[in-house]
Amino acid sequence: VIRDAIARDIAAIVGQGGVLQGPAARPYLTDATEAQGLVGRADAVCLPTSVDQVQAVLSWCYAHDVAVIPRGGGTGYAGGAVPLEGGVVVALGRLDGVDTFDPFEWRIRVKAGIVTRRLKHLVRSHGLWFPPDPGAAESSQIGGNIATNAGGPHAFKYGVTGKWVTGIEAIVPPGDRIEIGGPIRKDVAGYDLKSLLTGSEGTLAIITAAWLRLTPAPEAALPIVAFYPDEISGCAAIARVVATGLLPATLEYLDATTLAAAGATFPGGLPEDAAFLVVAEADGSLAAATALRDELQVTLSDDAVEVRAPAERAAIDALWNWREGVSIAVTTMRGGKLSEDIVVPVDQINAALTEIDALGRRYGLATCSWGHAGDGNIHATFMLSRDDRDELERVEQAARELLHFAVSAGGSISGEHGIGWVKRGELARQWPPRAIELHEQIKLLFDPKCLLNPGKKTT
Amino acid sequence: VIRDAIARDIAAIVGQGGVLQGPAARPYLTDATEAQGLVGRADAVCLPTSVDQVQAVLSWCYAHDVAVIPRGGGTGYAGGAVPLEGGVVVALGRLDGVDTFDPFEWRIRVKAGIVTRRLKHLVRSHGLWFPPDPGAAESSQIGGNIATNAGGPHAFKYGVTGKWVTGIEAIVPPGDRIEIGGPIRKDVAGYDLKSLLTGSEGTLAIITAAWLRLTPAPEAALPIVAFYPDEISGCAAIARVVATGLLPATLEYLDATTLAAAGATFPGGLPEDAAFLVVAEADGSLAAATALRDELQVTLSDDAVEVRAPAERAAIDALWNWREGVSIAVTTMRGGKLSEDIVVPVDQINAALTEIDALGRRYGLATCSWGHAGDGNIHATFMLSRDDRDELERVEQAARELLHFAVSAGGSISGEHGIGWVKRGELARQWPPRAIELHEQIKLLFDPKCLLNPGKKTT
Asked: For A133-175, how does the pLDDT look when each residue is reduced to its tens digit (9 = 90+)?
């Protein structure tokens, strides 16, 4: 099939306005890995407006041996949404309706393309909460969040996206619509295909809609911000919170270099000598949150340079908006970065930070890290100048060594970003051969022609 | 392979004392479906004492085309642990060690055979909690709980067993040991094989050990017990709690017939005119739990015959011990019962209870129900006299109609018990053909000879 013929046939399904060409298509050829220079190419970029259209596009592609690259908001850090070698990009952003919202039953059914922040605002206006809070909520979409099983700061207390998904509608090759689960909170009838699709990064099916579980919004969510003079005292504070048996909603950290990159805009300014930051949050009823906030404040105070507990709505919002911008602030330091998202057992965080420093020294790289300390999920970052091939190679080598460290520490090569294209072939570090074999066979069951998001999440 | 030869070869792996014969083997041929008359037969019943032995037994069976029936505490209601047509029962109860307990990191690695109650006591003595609380905690084992993704009352706030499992070690045919996940709280590296094994009812692998996530034990857990004159007012109270946005840890109900069966031993006695019971629990810090308890008490009071809020430790324990005994009390009414565990959207509970009543009338059967109202998970029960073939047939027909109702209400045929043998072939009511096909193909990937728990969880 020649390139123009593909676009023409896809346009026959989604309409002329549903196929993007030229500069309009360009944003759909990258994701956050563009900072590493990754840009793909596509035979067509389409934006279906109905599940029927998604089904028809996948069926057409499967019949014509054309690759399909499903795409949400394109905010991923693993290249999972980048079309590597042509094919049809299926961007789900126009499939953004709310099918059913039952606030009195704490549940909602949404199409895959609804933007995370819009969903969160909608349910919040009814006193409910959808806790998963991956970065880039203003762009990321629920379908993409499910396809990557996205996390975020509140995953510490509330779990990752998948824990809030009770049903998934998806199109499976060669073009079958299936729905697993629904507006229910328990289901052990079949093998857990819902969880199998969650985090499968568009390599098994195109997720088109989901039933989500919601929960009553906590009355209060009060942050505690603690600054430390070094990594050792900061990591000790994190360990102390966990050992004390307090249960904050978040338990985040940022290291000295991250603070240097993002600190200029820190609300209220950083204290002098702050080289490590911990952000916890106490939530619940106002009374419960206040009591927990006070306990956390005491627990975090040992060896701290300063501990703050902003209580005003505006100050709290400013803090979390700042936290959300950290990744971009780090990127702008040198123009580019490679951000890993390894997971280690929580008692290995200090060792992981030491390893990141050592890798930076060994490879002559600027490094920094921040992340979800309570979950042991570390955004280890290697900064990149653009157009320095040698540096990029050293970064990639250092990143591979870091993955090796994570696995040998009993952890995982990815807690949030997924394998995508960036970590292709790395799963074998973590899984034994029989599990790798099952992984590959499951891929072939769903997608025997290997046309769904080819080259991604490969073992 | 002849029967004695099987037992002899298995004994060569697990030792003479590890193979049970005659009356000693009898308890391993049934589970809770014995009340429906289900008793299996086995060529050998073995109790391995190490993961190596489990691996060797599975390898031997796979090489000799002998079926393997993995078994935990044998407390299931779906016949999932019953050896239907011979083979080797692998009972994991002697594999009950604690491999690693890291109380300061809220995690534990246990072997599959550890008894639920023992695990819960062990972690509680360190201020931690493992929330899943399926019935029969004194007999059920963690491996079985994972293999069925067991629930329980506290699943309403805290989720089912699978949400607390961060790693699984399992033996996969033809005899490979794999470990997926570990002492970590996030992991999106590979397809979610951990969740695929969770709830797979011993048909894909033998689970031998697991890493579990724990959480700080709440300081207080205060029940509220509300009695209603009928189903309608009781169901309205449940809906009111959810609509109000209160978040109890449990939201249970019991209907009039269940109260009649179990009410004689209700702590403090039942009020006159009590025909429906709701049991909620408020947990958290003492202050938070007390405040929520008071709110729940108000919300549950409309139309209630009486609302009680036992506050003494002994009274609270007595209440939950009574709740735990309900299933047995119902069984003893007639000598037997068939208990379903359908799930419906929470707003369909009232309709489900009406349907159960109608089925009882249509088939001339005594029925009752209780369950996890907040999760829409209903233990619909048809009472059985022993040795009445005609009644058993009517019960089975009524149960099939109930499954049909659950699916047409947007629910599931099983929320806790699984498919086992009792609900074989029923998944196609709930899943479309392509999903059924994937289910069958996944089974063949893991177990190409179909020797693992044959006849169970079949579509």
From this structure: 998 999 999 999 999 999 999 999 999 999 999 999 999 999 9
The pLDDT score that the predictor gives to residue A336 is: 84
What's the residue count for chain A? 459
Output A332 or B201, whichever has higher pLDDT.
B201
Which residue from B292, B296, B275, B277 is spatially nearest to B226, judged by alpha carbons?
B277
The answer for residues whose C-beta is within 8 angstroms of residue B365's C-beta and 6 or more apart is: B359, B382, B383, B391, B394, B395, B398
Distance CA B441, CA B204 (A): 11
Choose among A187, A345, A377: nearest Cβ to B412. Answer: A187
Helix (H, G, I), strand (E, B) or coil at B384: strand
The pTM for the full model equals 0.97
**Angle at the Cα of B75 from the Cα atoms of B73 and B77, rounded to 5 degrees:** 145
Q: What is the strand order of the sheet A44-46 is part of?
A: A19-20, A44-46, A88-91, A68-71
Q: Is the dihedral of CA A187, A188, A194, A195 positive or negative?
A: positive
Distance from CA of B149 to the nearest CA of A (A): 7
Q: What is the pLDDT of residue B454?
A: 98
Question: CB B302: neighbour CB atoms within 10 A?
Answer: 13
Give the DSSP per-residue string, B154-176: THHHH--GGGGEEEEEEEETTTE
To probe the interface with A, which of B51, B133, B154, B186 has the most A CB atoms within 10 Å? B186
Is the CB of A187 less than 8 angstroms away from the CB of B343? yes
Strands B206-213 and B107-111: antiparallel
How high is the pLDDT of residue B21?
87
Q: Each residue of A333-349: pLDDT tens digit?
A: 888 888 899 999 999 99
CB contact under 8 A, A193 and B419: no
User: What is the biggest distance separating any 2 CA atoms in chain B, rounded to whole angstroms?
Assistant: 67
Please report which confidence band the pLDDT of residue B432 belongs to, taking 50, 70 and 90 as the band edges: very high
The pLDDT of residue B2 is 57
Chain B residues in contact with A184 (beta carbon < 8 A): 343-345, 376, 410-412, 415
- pLDDT at site A296: 98
CB-based contacts of B205, cutoff 8 Å, min separation 6: B170, B171, B172, B173, B178, B197, B446, B452
C-alpha distances (whole Å) from A94 to each of A73, A133, A170 are 11, 22, 16
| Element of type H or E holding B147 | helix B142-148
User: Token pair for residue A207?
Assistant: 């997720």
Q: Which residue out of A101, A171, A185, A377 would a mutagenesis test of the B interface target, given it has the greatest number of B Cβ atoms within 10 Å?
A: A185
- Quick one: how far is CA A355 from the chain centroid? 23
Whether the ipTM is more than 0.90: the answer is yes
Question: Does the pLDDT at position A1 exceed 80?
Answer: no
Task: Write out pLDDT tens, residues B264-302.
Answer: 999 999 999 999 999 999 999 999 999 999 999 999 999
Closest of B121, B374, B330, B361 to residue B240, by C-alpha: B374
CA-based end-to-end distance of chain B: 29
Spatial CA neighbour of B29 closest among B421, B397, B450: B421
pLDDT tens column, A369-384: 999 999 999 999 999 8
Q: What distance in Å separates the CA atoms of residue B337 and residue B399, rounded to the nearest whole number?
A: 11
pLDDT tops 80 at residue B66: yes
